[in-house]
Amino acid sequence: MKTLLSFKQIDFWLQVIILGCQLVGTRDFIGMYIITGAVQVISCLLNLFLLKPEYKHNGRYLYNIILLFIFIIGLLVFLPLIWHTGNEDITFIFLFSMLIVGFIMAIWYLVISYREMQFINKLVKRHELIK
Fold it and tell me: pTM for the complete prediction?
């Protein structure tokens, strides 16, 4: 149980540090934005497959569905560009909207991670009291 708590703490604080760097301002905003997204997607996949359902926050399921929906839309936008049949205007609209949606999703995922960390921390303390 403590290993799970350690994983959730590292997961949460890594996200806080990356988002903090992004909010404070870096010279490479897009790079930090991509790193934030990559860290959170990796975290999301790890939690999807490794975290038991009883430890998952209720919002995680909806988050996963919306993330899958965004991924599918991204494929529909970018795949036609490979065959030079896509519309660049739609691509720019999608990318611009992802600047806003991506930031909202990042904050939402941070909240989910924090609540899961709090819940697991309560379970660890309760388990230690019982011993």
Answer: 0.83
